[in-house]
Amino acid sequence: MADQMRLTKWLAASLLAVFVLGVLGCNQAPSKRVVQVQGLTMGTSFSMKWVDTDSTRVADVQARAGALLSRINQQMSTYIDDSELSLINAAQPGSRHSLSPELLEVMVLAEQISEQTRGAFDVTVGPLVNLWGFGPDGRITHQPEVDQVRQLKARVGHDYLHLDVEEASLLKEGEQYIDLSAIAKGYGVDQLAALLEAEGITDYLVEIGGELRARGYKPGKEPWRLAIEVPHPDTREVQQIISIDRGGVATSGDYRNYFEEEGVRFSHTIDPRTAYPIRHRLASVTVIADQCAEADALATALMVMGEEEGYNFALEQGIKALFISKAKVGFETRHTPSFAPYLQISNGGQ
Where does the record locate the signal sequence feature (predicted)? Predict the structure, then answer.
């Protein structure tokens, strides 16, 4: 999560925030307007928009947001050699490590989602991500040997991690390497939202690299509108507009970060259960949840599962999800029933 952190992976799953600064309605207090701060973090950009009558605190909010995100980087990055997580990854098997409150919170949620998704989400998949050329070690142009994949797969499994919540500690059974790139960005979004809410701000849209969290409305009681991209590697077009007044939104996709060898495309999304890149028609999946960290992790899990297993799992679990799959011509879109209200608001022209 240093500035060079997996930029292509996270931008591949981006959402575009559709935001228009219009003329305030006649019944809207002239001093109530949208203010914005932005910056760089986790190898990508972040932005915070909120409705306020006091623009004097913008600089203070920006400084505090920057400090907050820097702290999360130092705790959870695999790109910073002396980060809290990197030191744990480098430690000997069988060692126990005290965790900061933030890292403990993320690890507990990660474990819950690993259990819920039956291993489709697994933070120990890092060695395989690196082996396939999508981690800190850099790109590859040839797929790994079968024996290499098999050897590293033996180190993958969230069951090898043992959390002690009361003691705020973690024990690794073996040479597990933890990669939080599919949940930490969403956690960062949640922390930015908490920062604003601590200031009494209730109408906002915060975003890191396309993962978002929204609450309330823009001036004039307009909902926050978000555009989900067409999952095409060469274009930045809108596939679907959604509207939201509360919740976290995350998208996972395989359409920009990949390599090809002899006509075969290898996605950056690695299935922890098989140790190989996904090979199905699902191009992207968008999830809405109360917390952006949860949406982030679930979107990754559903992307791993694919269009049929993922859709059926989302139905079973009541997950708000939109699936975009490759078709013979273009793309096919379907969503779970709980996702429908977000489309209805948008399509209704509100």
Answer: none
